[in-house]
User: What shape does this take?
Amino acid sequence: MDDALLDKLEILADAAKYDASCASSGAKRRTGGPDGIGSTTGAGICHAYTPDGRCVSLLKILLTNHCLFDCAYCINRRSSNVRRARFSVEEVVRLTLGFYKRNCIEGLFLSSGIIRSPDYTMEQLMLVARTLRRDHGFAGYIHLKTIPEASPWLIEQAGLWADRLSINLELASDRSLKQFAPEKDGGAIKAVMGQVGERIAEAREEKRRFSPAGQSTQMIVGADASTDLSVLETSDTLYRRYGLRRVYYSAFSPIPEASSALPAKPPPLQRENRLYQADWLLRYYGFTVEEIAAGGEGGMLDLGIDPKLAWALKNRERFPVDVNRADREMLLRVPGLGGRAVDRIVEARRHTSLRLEDVARLSSGLKRARAFLIAADHHPGGLTDRADLRQRLVAPPKQLSLF
Amino acid sequence: MRRVELKDGADLDGFRRALRGLVALGVEPDEVDWNIGAAPSLFGDAAPLPADAPPVPLPRPVGALIESVVCHRDPERYALLHRLVRRVVRGERDMLDHHADPLVHRLALLDKAVRRDLHKMHAFLRFHEVRDPDGGERYLAWFEPDHFIVEATAPFFVERFESLVWTILTPVGSLQWDRRSLTIGPAALRPEGLDRDDRFAEGWQRYYESTFNPARVNPTAMRAEMPRKYWANLPEAAAIPAMIRSAPARVQAMIEAEAAVPRRRTPDKAVAAMARQEPATLAELNRIIRAAEPMISGPLVPGATQAVPGEGPVGAAIAIVGEQPGDREDVEGRPFVGPAGQLLTRALEEAGIARSAAYLTNAVKHFKFVARGKRRLHQSPTAGEVKHYRWWLMKELAFVRPRLVVTLGATAALALTGRSVSVLRERGPMGFGDWEGFVTVHPSHLLRLPAGEGAERAYRDFVSDLRRARGLVEGAG
Assistant: This one.
């Protein structure tokens, strides 16, 4: 690796870091064997964490940050004065294998600015994946960003080599997209999601490989005026209609060379966090978008408490819930109890009547749950309905220091 | 008191032997004195355990838990496991479901700690390329796990790096892989000068610094997943303190910076040209098709030799769509040149259609087959595979603009209609959306009929279908 390649790596990693996804999960088990290299494990591995708390699992780079598009939120838009660079297909392959052999990464997440044409760009991305798989027997994880404006047949081919395809919606509404990303078209993006979703379902049925870890997308939060409600409604549609595996939320982050249309400001990290929690409730806890939104005000989630607690505080008539009798669906709605804890509760209570100390062994969230739970030796009494319950759960009263 | 001696580390074999003896004699957990790595008792064991006690049948999850927990550093681990097994053999077979039981809970915590340690070793171990006297590729790693997990991690590293030569050294044991066999070795000391001249190590550090977003700085979240104790062996971690220190100033600078005026002019011509990416002619489209990988045989599986695009003039009145190229077509790269193609050519002539005036193509552009000895046996494409290729077929037809599209067989009819068509029942004219269509059998179907009157009648029907199709075109013209 020479200095020129190191410089390019620095530019093209910096240019790719605003994509939140770095997951290497969901792939089928696969190994490279004696002539190839690598394996996928299903669950994915984070090989490092940067001081922003994010996981480094894949080598996340752009093929190039030259771009013909002019999306206001993006550091790589054509009107930005950022330093530009471009990798060759061979260079990306070399870097991926080099880092992989040192056990720094699970694989590659490759995206690109649009150069020459969407088709040309998509083909280059596909060629990287094909070279890794076919010429080097690479069995690690490959996530390719799909260029929605590219021809359908190129997307069809990309899915044959990649573990995951993703297309970023970027903004929750078509109106915002038109305003901030003039070359993008919300309809075209969803059409490709539909195409990819259909292929994934067919391939699964016919036991073939096509993007076996599914497809994902990303929405930027806080750049435009979209409410949490509209963001979550969009996610809900994406999960239901296109069978997306994940929707990532990325707090709009200040970038060097910011556009005058979207000046730099601190990223709304708390809002992003609440959206992820809400997304989880949507997918695994049986909540509807309306229920989640009702926990907040005016279509925005409560930033002070998590959305499940917010819902519970506004629906106190549903509590307390008997840990020894309630069905799984209702237990999942108890603040502090996660999916795993609920599974263990349901299994354990077949053998014994659970007391509070038993629940403490099954869940780490008892402090929050106890106001909403009845156990064999515990009843919250009036606690559930106390007006100051929120304060008690959020900020435990500090003990006065006595002089 | 009964004294049991086990080796240092994760002595699974020793524990299993001891456990069999203890269970056979019905020894209570309180009566056992577990000694790990101790010198053998000077006076010998007053009551040695039987060496040939039978295996203890245990539910599979209990066996898995034992294998994991023996790797833990906790000196009480064997005693705890013995208590668990004692209760299981006494009848509490599904004991592990009692998640709230204090013993089960304690063991679950030990198990979790071991699994986390395994996961962190898979994640945070770094190989360094070292000079090999033979000039080959060799890798060396140093790692400090919390528990006795070195052997347990071996399958992961062997599977992932089977094609490389590598050594893993740790303070509690070592592993060596030479591409064929694994050697488990003794504890080691940290080797000197690991990443001395490995430029990839330098590249990795630069990558790590670049992928960090200073506007999201959150060291607590980082330390929860990557505690400080791992930093010493992670080359990239050296940069962490400076990254955290400089983050606020970097963000402030970004926020205070005035929106920059773009230095470059808008590349109007390139932006306009970007939209013109679609193939403009049939020849261009066919070039793309020819360059494409076989989709149906899938990557990494040897498949068709080449893509077979359509053939015939743009503006042909009739387009004929078959299923997929066969063995001959795959070799020659032209459609309908094998036995079925020859039969089609003959039938077209009899129906009064010049083959050279029609556009001939297939729904699927690659040969799908299974190899049987030297022969390649045709396999029908699946519905999903037909859809993969549908884009091309539709583009081809858009260029050719035929007055009538004749589909041969069920696959072609599926490609045009999107549903499964019963060819024998529905043969004849049919609308294909944008195109006037006509459904008939595939000539290979005729080849498979046993020779005789039936086959002759089927051939005559086929020719008369083609004649009808010609009539539709001429009538329409």
